[in-house]
Amino acid sequence: MVPNVHLTKDDGDPLDDLKIYRKLVGKLNYLTVTRPDIAYAVSIFSQFMFEPTIKHWEALEQILCYFEGARGLDILYSDHGDTRIEVFADVDWAGSRIDRRSTTSYCIFVGENLVSRRSIKQTVVSRSSTEFEYRAMVKSTSELLWIHHLLVEIGLNPLSPAKLLCDNKAALYTLPQI
User: Fold this and answer.
1) Distance set, CA 54 to CA 17, 51, 132, 178 (Å)
2) Cα(46)–Cα(21) distance, integer angstroms
């Protein structure tokens, strides 16, 4: 997406052909499995599936232009010799200009390979960014445990404890030490 462009539902004239917008967003959504670099942008465009505007379509076309210049930038998984699990969790507190909801995101790495990522808008509104950081850490810990058990089940026992990383100092200072 073009930096510093914030789309809202009232951005200009309605798009005449809703079907083509929905079809392209749907295809791009499937493509995010192998191209996580477009996941955030596709999640933004998915919010306007019912009432897209011409401005939304023009912004969506930027993803297609991006693909033209980003050929060969696929994910390569390689054996780094370890099964260390690291999770990076973060929240965009009240970042949505549409409904002021927060977006929880996390990425899980095994070794140096990205194996899972998630970005989801919160269903509730909290009073502080710390509360949302806790929610993000809970969601990412759940996924982390699932991946840990999967690795153990297939015989790739992680040799070191998993790391959960977040950037909210209030959440880090108030975490109970286990």
Assistant:
1) 10, 10, 34, 52
2) 10
Q: Which two tokens stand for residue 36?
A: 């996580």
Cβ atoms of 147 and 134 closer than 8 Å: no
- Alpha-carbon distance of 137 to 144, in angstroms, equals 10
**Relative orientation angle of helices 54-69 and 39-46, to the nearest 10 degrees:** 160
55's CB contacts (< 8 A; 6+ apart) are 7, 11, 12
Distance of CA 122 to the CA centre of its chain: 12
> Is the overall model pTM greater than 0.70, yes or no?
no
What's the confidence (pLDDT) of residue 25?
A: 92
In angstroms, the CA 134 to CA 176 distance is 12
Instruction: Report the sign of the C-alpha dihedral through residues 93, 97, 101, 103, in that order.
Output: negative
CA distance 37 to 44: 13
74-93 tens-digit pLDDT? 666 777 777 889 998 887 76
User: What number does CATH give the domain 85-174?
Assistant: 3.30.420.10
- The alpha carbon of 111 is separated from its chain's Cα centroid by a whole number of angstroms, namely 20
Distance CA 131, CA 103 (A): 13
